[in-house]
Amino acid sequence: MKLSTAALDALRNDVGVPSYDRTTVTPGIVHFGVGGFHRAHQAMYLDRLMSEGKALDWGIVGVGVLPNDQRMAEVMSAQDSLYTLVIKHPDGTLEPRVIGSIVGYLFAPDDPEAVLARMTDPATRIVSLTITEGGYHVNQVTGELDASDPALAADLEPGATPRSAFGFIVEALRRRREAGVPPFTVMSCDNIPGNGHVARKMISSFARLKDPATAEFLENEVRFPNCMVDRITPVTTDADRAALAERFGVEDGWPVVCEPFTQWVLEDSFGGVRPPYEDVGVQIVDDVEPYELMKLRLLNASHQALAYLGFLSGYQYAHEVCQDELFVDFLLGYMDEEGTPTLPPVPGVDLDRYKHQLIERFANPEVRDTLARLCAESSDRIPKWLLPVVREQLAAGREIGRSVLVVASWARYAEAVDEQGQPIEVVDRLRDKLVERAQHNREDPLVFISDPDLFGDLASDERFTTPYKAALQSLHEIGARRTLEAL
C-alpha cells in the first residue's frame, strides 16, 4: 500500500501511525536539510510530543536548497509529507512507525518566495539546520567564514534571490526586522563542536557582508542554542524499501532506518517559547559542551578510526569491523588513552559504560552502516573531530599513536586505490585536491598533511610527523591489518 494520509487507517497493526489529527498540526519550525538524520531524530521527537497531544503548533516545514533535494520534494509531496521510520534492533526485529510531524516541504529553487513567506510568518519560531559540517563554510584553520562557495557568493550580490540556507536566514531576518516581527531562534543540529556558536558566527559574518543592519539585529536579538545529537542513521537502501514492503505492506519512496539508541542534549537558550522537548527524553541543560565533546571525540572520532583501516582491511560495514577483536581493542585503546583524557567531566554519564555501549552500537549487524559512508567528507570531519584530540594530547605530552594512525589511514585511503589495486571512490568536497596530494604519499610522505587549511602546522611538528611517517610507511609496506597487529 502506498504511504499517504488516506492509507493510514488501513495499515497493519504492527506499523505505528500518528495518533493525532494531522489536520490540526500547524507549522512552527522551518528546517533546512531534510535528510535521514533529521527524520530519525528531531522530527521523531516532535512526533512523540504530538502523540501525547502536545506541540501541535510546532509542525515542521522542510526546505531543500540543493539540486539533489528535488527528489525529497517529490517523495514528500507524493506521500503527504509522511514517511516510515524503521528502528533496526540487533536481533533482527524491525520496528516501523509512520512519522507525521513534517507537514510540508518546499524546494527552494522552484519557489524561493514561498520559503521566505514561511520563514517570515510570525508562527515560525524556530529555524533548524542539518546542513552537514561543510554547510557552515568554516575555514578549518582560521575558524572564519569562507565566502568562496558559489552559492554564498551569488547570495552576496545586490538584490540577489537567496540560494543558500545562510541567504534565506539573513533575508528572512531582514524582512522580520522591517515588519516588526520578533526573530526566530536558529537551532543547529549538526555534528560540530559548539554548533550554535558556529552557526551564529558564520551566519553573522555572512550578514555583515550582505546587510550590516540585519547583522546587528541578528547579533543582538537572535538566539543560537548549542546541542548534541546522536543516532546512527545509515543511508536508506533498496533492500530497506523492499523489506518494509514485504514484511509490513508499506510502499514508501524514502523510509529512514536507524539504530534503537537516540540522544539529544539541548541548551535551553531560545528567543521565545519552544516545544516541551524534555517531556519526551531530550536532555535540556545549561551547558552542552561536555556532552558534545564526549560524542565528537569518542563516537564520531571512533567512526573515523574504524572506517579507513576497516575499509583497507577488506571490510564493507561498521558491524563487521566491530565484531573483530583486533579492531575493538584498537578503538577502546583510542578512546581510553587518547580521546577520554581530553574530556571534561560529563554530568550523569559513566564514560566507561558509554564507550563499551558505543562498540555494541557499532556492532549492530542490522544497521549495516557502510564504511564508505563513514569515509565520506573526511575533510570536514577529521579536522573537527580528531585533530583537536591530537593537539590537546601533544600540548599535555600524552599519547597520540592511535590518532596518528587514523590520519595516516585517511591519507592512504585518499590515494584512491585499495590494497588489492582496485579503485576507491573517494567522496569529499575537496576530493580532487586530496587525491592529487595523496598520490604522492610514497615519494613525499608529508605531502598530504602539508595543507595548512586542514592540518594547520602539524606538518612541522616532529612529535606528529615522526610517528605519522612510520604509520604511513607501514600501511604501504604491510597493509592495514598487519599495521594494527604490530601496534
TrEMBL record:
* Domain Mannitol dehydrogenase N-terminal, first and last residues per copy: 28-275
Q: Known InterPro entries for this protein?
A: 6-PGluconate_DH-like_C_sf, 6PGD_dom2, Mannitol_DH, Mannitol_DH/Oxidoreductase, Mannitol_DH_C, Mannitol_DH_CS, Mannitol_DH_N, NAD(P)-bd_dom_sf
Tell me the ranges covered by the Mannitol dehydrogenase C-terminal domain, including all copies. 287-475
Question: Catalytic activity annotated for this protein?
Answer: D-mannitol 1-phosphate + NAD(+) = beta-D-fructose 6-phosphate + NADH + H(+)
State the EC number(s): 1.1.1.17
- Name of the top EC class for this enzyme: oxidoreductase
Question: What is an example of a Pfam family matching this protein?
Answer: Mannitol_dh
The UniProt keywords, alphabetically, are: NAD, Oxidoreductase
Keyword Oxidoreductase: yes or no?
A: yes
The record's similarity note reads: Belongs to the mannitol dehydrogenase family.
Q: What is this protein called?
A: Mannitol-1-phosphate 5-dehydrogenase
Q: Which organism is it from?
A: Kribbella karoonensis
